[in-house]
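Subject: two folds for Thursday's group meeting

Dear M.,

Sorry for the delay on this. The cluster queue was jammed most of the week, so I only got both jobs back this morning. I'm pasting them in the order they finished. Each block is the input sequence followed by the predicted structure tokens. Could you check whether the formatting survives your parser before we put anything on slides? The first protein is the one we discussed after the seminar.
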Amino acid sequence: MDPAEGAEEIILVDENDEPLGPESKLRAHEGRGRLHRAFSIFIFDREGRMLLQRRAAGKYHFAGLWTNACCGHPRWGEGLEEAAHRRLKEEFGFDTGLEEAFSFVYRASDEESGLTEHEFDHVFYGRFDGEPDPNPEEIGAWRWEEPQAVLEDLKKNPASYTPWFRIVAGRVVEEGPAVGQPLRDGDASVR
């Protein structure tokens, strides 16, 4: 992890997502992990395909695994949706309307890095029909995939996907946006 990134202050929360205070990103992920606010963004195109990314090999934890379009943490003093839009632009080079769908709490340890995610994770849906411009420091590969094909591959190859993605992919596919239906009036933009 880039030392500056590890020093970034994220938001520790209680089991009701009430802020407890700031903590450095690295310290929040050490040991068994401290519960902190996070988000996971699922992007669909007009045909209903899901945008997936394989985390870059240089990521500080869960490197090289397939996951949803974008994940991240709001910084101390930053709003949740504001942070989601910031990270989507930083990782995939575009922005689009987002709608919060649900939230969940999980804990997952990465044996390779020794770090732990303990997150109060807010799940957002968005729609994008353009060509992404991925940041290679964040994203090693990407693809559009039919949701049912994703679920089938998850059953066959669960170790190829991030823990948080394995937890919610079924719910996202079941409850996700309908094919061809806009989430918000087309407010997509590419950087």
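Second protein, same layout:
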Amino acid sequence: MAPTKHNKPAIRVTRSDYESLSRLAESYSARNPDVADQLLAELDRARVVEDARIPADVVRMGSRLRFTTDAGEDRAVTLVFPGEADIAEGKVSILTPIGAALIGLSAGQSIDWTARDGRIHRLTVENVEPMVPAAPGQAYRELRTA
């Protein structure tokens, strides 16, 4: 039985994440158009809010979060820019199908995402840890202030 496709939940992104991620997706559009288009589609439907006004339980760049899937997975990950990605350390790139699906979700929200093999999965954000200020030199801080 095929999974039921659900409407996408409302999402919020910070202005700095929106600007950085828009530039990132555009720069990757020639190399990886599918994921770049998916990220741009998520950004297009997002409500953009000032950085200081984003609730602590919203997934943004650098967020540490835990999610569960319809396949029974329970994973803790950090959402990062491509250069920081390391699946062994739980660092998921925003330029992956699951990474693009996570941006802007709040704890308790669910979304369908399409894996690279074409199968549709559903994930639910269980919790989002409050953001810790970035240390100087970290990629997401550098991209935000660029």
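Two things I noticed about the second structure. The beta strands are 12-14, 47-49, 64-69, 74-80, 91-93, 110-114, 120-128. The chain has one domain: 12-130.

Cheers,
T.
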